[in-house]
Amino acid sequence: MFHFLRQLGQNGDQAVSADQTPPDYGHQRPTIGLALGGGAARGFAHIGVIRTLVAKGFKPDIVVGTSIGAVIGGCYAAGKLDQIEEWGRSLTRRRVFGYLDVNFSGSGLIAGGRLAEKLQEGLGDIKIEDLPLRYGAIATEIGTAHEIWITRGRLVDAMRASYALPGLFPPQQVGGRWLMDGALVNPLPISAARALGARLIIAVNLNADNFGRGTVIYDHGADAAPIEAAARGLFAGLGEKVAKRRFLGTAERPGLTTVMVEAFNVMQDRITRARLAGDPPDVLISPRLGRVGVFEFHRAQEAIAIGAEAAEKAIEAVGEAVAALM
Fold first, then answer.
1. Stated pTM of the model
2. Is 90 annotated in the active site?
3. Cβ-proximal residues to 320 (8 Å cutoff; 6+ apart), any chain
4. Which residue out of 67, 157, 191, 282 is catalytically annotated?
5. Cβ distance 76 to 63 under 8 Å?
6. Catalytic residue among 61, 157, 181, 282, which?
7. In the predicted model, what is the mean pLDDT of the chain?
8. Which carries the bigger pLDDT value, residue 113 or residue 11?
9. Mean pLDDT of 299-311
10. CA torsion, ordered 288, 205, 284, 200, to nearest 10 deg
11. 45-55 and 300-325 are packed helices; what angle lies between their axes, rounded to 10 degrees?
């Protein structure tokens, strides 16, 4: 163990890059599995975590992801981490809106075609079984609620199924099954990483920074003079600006997407807590991302830095876990 920690200390604060040659910890180290959780825009923190782990010599042999975790993990497995990081850092508010091809006639408010085209452009027809490491994306089957581990087929298809947030993105048909976001059943896929052969599990929870949330308000009721909301449709006010306010919400009133995502986050947080209690990882990395909104994709640079910082704090624990299993 002390040999590991001494080597870690000798590395200092060198630049974190997934492409640099990692320190040699020998050939007997345990198989490392990386479980990447969901969290929308906060998922860019996974990039910082991966780069830090790899730079310190803890290169994962197995990567399993849910939702945005499946996207970042898949890009890493395919050797495309640089590309998705570059794309993320280039995002602005305007560019993010450019990817939101709103569609009110389908099974999701966002058709997802523009984002899918970007993934297709970067990954092409890469198949999971051709990746240099074991990979799995978690999805949920419509109708049966089965937890589906996508471990073969086109990588892009697996990613799209795993992040198909109900009501926001349309479900994807993969292998004859209609699939939606895996966070409905397994937001932090520790169990999948273990089943795929990992002996040491490192999990990254993007939604741990929930101080002050999820408590009980024990006394609540109506105001003395309640304000009656007018019954209006989504386009009642006419005009693009009014429609956007109804869709995205305002400071005074949550919009449709806010309500959907908040409801999803509550469910995801409760499921994650329950599954962590029953099947904890060997090392849990919890980036403090509370100040980064789930739709704030333009803050990728900040999220990446927070992920790297959290991973740095966990390096000693990772080294101790590796040493204990050797």
1. 0.82
2. no
3. 1, 4, 5
4. 67
5. yes
6. 181
7. 84
8. 113
9. 97
10. -150
11. 40
